[in-house]
Amino acid sequence: MSKILLLQGNQAVVEGAIAAGVKFFGGYPITPSTDVAESLAEQLPRVGGKFIQMEDEIASMGAIIGAALTGKKVMTATSGPGFSLKQELIGYACMAEIPLVIVNVQRVGPSTGQPTSPSQGDVMQARWGTHGDHWLIALTPASVSECFELTLRAYALSEKYRVPVILLMDEIIGHMREKIELPENYDEIPKVERKLPTCPPEEFKAYATDESLVPAMPPFGSGYRWHVTGLVHDETGFPKGTPAATLSATNRQHDKLYNNLDDIVEVENYAMEDAEYAIVAYGGAARAAYEAVDLARAGGMKVGLVRPITIWPFAEKQIKALASKVKHIMVHELNYGQYVLEVERVVKGAVPVTLFAKYDNDPATPDAILAEMKKAFK
Amino acid sequence: MKKELRLSGTGGQGLILAGIILAEAALLDGKLAIQSQSYGPEARGGSSKSEVIISDKAIHFPKVTKPNLLLAMSQEASKKYSEDLTAESILVTDSLFVQTLPAHSGKVYELPITHTAKEVLGKALFANIIALGAIVKLTGIVSEESLINAVLNRVPKGTEELNKKAIQLGMDLIK
Hints:
- The structure holds two protein chains of two kinds.
- By secondary structure, chain A is of the alpha/beta class.
- Chain A has two domains: 2-188, 3-Layer(aba) Sandwich (Rossmann fold); 268-376, Rossmann fold (3-Layer(aba) Sandwich), CATH 3.40.50.920.
- Helix content of chain A is 38%, strand content 22%.
- In chain A, the strands form three sheets. In chain A, strands 2, 3, 4, 5, 6, 7, 8 and 13 form an eight-stranded mixed sheet that branches. A five-stranded mixed sheet of chain A has the order 10-12-11-14-15, sandwiched between helices.
- At the A-B interface, strand 9 and helix 10 of A face helix 1 and strand 2 of B.
């Protein structure tokens, strides 16, 4: 049985969180993400969960890391200014390998910027916002239904790989309302749980792994004791400063994700079968791009849309393949040009890459994208 | 058929709720709908718009680019949000607030929306529901039955009869 609703993207994230089994939210409200906190404040107590409005965004990150260590699925939600504050502890979560989901509904920045206007200016920050070599996953929904689906997926990936997952939304998708069909009963949705140790507590080594390279993670309070630190550590969890320990920890944190890119990286192809040209767009910007492709097709231009759903790790294989298929690629994003840098890196000049950047508070209309495509694809 | 509507005025007039109700009424009719909004950082005051697109087919771009109808419930909104009107667009204004009409070659309906809310129902806050009654009567964009059901799904308990009356008052503004 399912129910049909008109929901905001932010509300669909909340439904996804409840369906995934989230039991803890620590956050500090900020436009345009506030609806996530507002709805979870109402819904979490009904499913035996806890909602805490913390004193700020840094404390919110600390709270969800602590709650995750007790075995709970956890969430925080924010926008640019709060995302900046969370970066230090995002690095801690990468280093300590804590599964958690951070929702960032992007708005115009930097600083306070434009609280109610859409932007995709945090793409590079999602990847490189915290210091040091680190790897994480970021997913970018382009519809209200996808907000629900990708929230579920964010938890599946986060628990499976013990890694922070960023749900990188934007004001367009977060605030707009559209039709969504949701299951009546979330109990029927399969849930991904983190791996538990099979050895007795006295033999447990916190970061010992099998071939998956993902260590088992017992909840605090279950009798298993381990040391959690932001320092480089060996498999016991205690700090170790040797070159060999650093090399091993760094390589494993990279390889546990990058050995599994086919499982992690998702890209949608729209009207790409016979395409000679491609537009690459994601999240809210993709909405206009679908329509621009339809308009271009109606005018006889063989263009398709490539829409990264997993924005980090970068869809290297898919973009490489694209460069050998089409004559010209246009990247459209609501910032001065961020994702385009990665596209250019991978395409390596094999075909021209053009940027259509929009960064004036309003999304590009389908007509504006069509005009840019006509200019570029000659 | 794709229909695009823009409901505009001042923050606090209930236009975002009006857009949500219209979109939900469209879903009740078995159609697809997207509602979006744009407003400043103010909680009250400041120009605000709520946009609704209704179609039988998938709607990709969520913003209105070719409005079939613009509702303007403030002087500033009537100016700010009327730039993309075409000769086919319908302009509906609240005559209490909009004294100077923007340049528009298409049909214009100057309706006493808030005046009616105050005079007949005693409260200006029914203006958004009266406006919906008028818009639906004018365009048939959703069925009257779905409009009534969508309004009743959204309003506080105990106000059902007043809201039904507000819809009827809105419809009666269109001769």
